[in-house]
Specification:
Layout (H helix, E strand, L loop, with lengths): L1 H28 L4 H8 L4 H5 L3 E2 L2 E2 H18 L4 H21 L5 H16 L6 H22 L1 H6 L7 E5 L2 E4 H43 L3 H11 L6 H10 L1 H7 L3 H27 L27 E2 L6 E7 L4 H17 L3 E7 L8 H18 L9
Parallel strand pairs: 6-7
Antiparallel strand pairs: 1-2, 3-4, 5-7
Helix pairs in contact: 1-4, 1-6, 4-5, 5-6, 5-7, 9-10, 9-13, 11-13
Length: 395
Amino acid sequence: MIKVIKQHSKIALLILSASGLAIAALSGLSAHIDWLASLCTQGGSGCRETAGFAILRLPLWLWGGIFYLSMLLIILRAPSFTFLWAAAAFGLEFNLLRIMFAIDVICPFCLVNFAVVLFLVAASFERSTLWQSLSVSLAVCLISYTLLVQQNESLLSGYQGNKTAIIARVRDQKISSAELESATAARTYPLEREIYEQKKEQLDRMITGILLQQEADRQKVPLEELIKQLAKARTVQISEKEIDDFYARNEAQWRTSGAPKAELRARIRNYLMRQKTYETVADYARSLAPEEEVVSYLQEPPPPMAGLDVDDAPALGPQDAPVTVIEFSDYLCPACRKMHETTRVIKEMYKDRTRWVFKDFPLSRHKWSKKAAEAARCAGRTRQILGISRYFVCR
């Protein structure tokens, strides 16, 4: 009976090792095969970020391949060392998982590989070598963590998702990347958006150029000739309204140019015709290849997000309401007072489907705003203590 169990365990270990070897190979190939890269990025940008990590100048996917090949040989030639070898791999995989979550990325290949290693540990478990295996796993964990951090320092410190990166120290006080990003997000986000838009525009042009060049090569004609043919076959028309709208949007610029209006309108017409012609050619280029064959990995910058503690703020509505509205208001602000007429209608309309949280926002130009807010807070606290009302918001 024991012999049968061991035989089944050996088969399971061989299957797991072969699966792990395949995962390592796919991870390495994802940098060269577009559809694999596309599949990986469905779970986030983690594959691209972790692909640059290495130990002793060897990429992690190659270390994975070496481990699984070694595991296959050990299972076949020295099965008594299987649990020890699996425990060593767990020490390394544990660190990789720690770092992956520390820099806030998700790599599907890494997660699947971690699961395979866990199954290998479970399938090869040997009580007789438990403490030796734990010792090996801990030793590998400590050594690999040091190597990963030291040899991939630039990736860890430079990655924008690494919120724990320390970028300055003032005596015993540290400033993290997250603190700096939070303080500058509102000012830097417009610049990041502008950079992204310029990169996206240029990337679209490069993709269009590649597709058109491939089509020109297929038709065995010069690229310029193909573009001329496309432009001729797709004649565009510019209406007077389009010229008027463009002129109105840039009227301040025209005033400084000093050119006659008729000349400006001719320039605008030519510009809009070139732009429309390019758009039609670009649409044609995009139609030359299926969507899955043209994949962009350029990421849009995330908008700045602010954390807000509303636990102690006065509120109306159930805690589990699907929508929470946070209102910042000044008791002496006429505009705020007028808005209350609208918000009252909204509260009545949606009732228990919204939770309305009130935050004091006293403006400096209203002399008694701060005192009014303090008085309202005191009154609200008093009513809560006396149990008069569960929720209280002053108006």
